[in-house]
Design brief:
The protein has about 160 residues and is an alpha+beta fold. The protein has one domain: 3-Layer(aba) Sandwich (Aminopeptidase), CATH 3.40.630.30. Helices cover about 25% and strands about 35% of the residues. The protein is built from four helices and nine strands, in the order βαβββββαβαβαβ. Strands 1-4-5-6-7-9-8 form a seven-stranded mixed sheet, with helices on both faces. Strands 2-3 form a two-stranded antiparallel ribbon. The N and C termini lie far apart (about 30 Å).
Length: about 160
């Protein structure tokens, strides 16, 4: 069973290590702006006694942006459980939308978010190519051989009663 809970100060080292493991850094660059995801609020997914995933987010006036989503146990529903929890929080906050930015080479994220129900609403042409100014460690070509060039914005507009 997957249990999802808010991050706590006790998770800080694990959060930083998990972000570095999956991204090479705690810094995320999107829309040409660097963000230290390690200091953001988030949720941790636990499978039994071990931490199995992390999501971080930013609450803004235009909605909630999911900054990172990482599963350490692929295919077991961890990413879905984390994203469902963020969605629940967005509804509780009565935020107008849930959104995120990913790169054109991140095929797992693109598929996941579309299956989850989000819409691709914007392509930022050459957005990733500009991001090395904000995060120099971004590779020009992803591990899957796809050039990292563009940022894709996914969105779930919410009707708030």
């Amino acid at each position: 069973m997957i249990v999802v809970r808010p991050t706590t100060p006790d998770d800080q080292c694990w959060t930083s290590d998990t972000l570095r493991l999956g991204r090479g850094s705690t810094t995320v660059a999107r829309l040409d702006v660097p963000v230290d995801a390690a200091v953001l609020p988030g949720f941790v997914a636990e499978l039994g006694v071990r931490r199995a995933g992390l999501v971080t987010y930013v609450v803004g006036t235009d909605g909630v942006e999911t900054v990172t989503l990482q599963s350490l146990a692929r295919g077991q529903g961890v990413g879905r459980a984390l994203f469902d929890r963020v969605h629940k929080m967005v509804l509780e906050l009565r935020a107008p939308r849930l959104w995120l930015i990913t790169a054109n080479d991140n095929l797992l994220a693109i598929g996941f978010h579309q299956r989850w129900g989000m819409d691709l609403v914007r392509l930022v042409h050459n957005g990733v190519k500009r991001s090395p100014r904000a995060k120099p460690s971004i590779p020009g070509v992803a591990g899957n051989g796809i050039p990292s060039r563009h940022e894709l914005e996914f969105d779930l507009a919410l009707t708030v009663p």
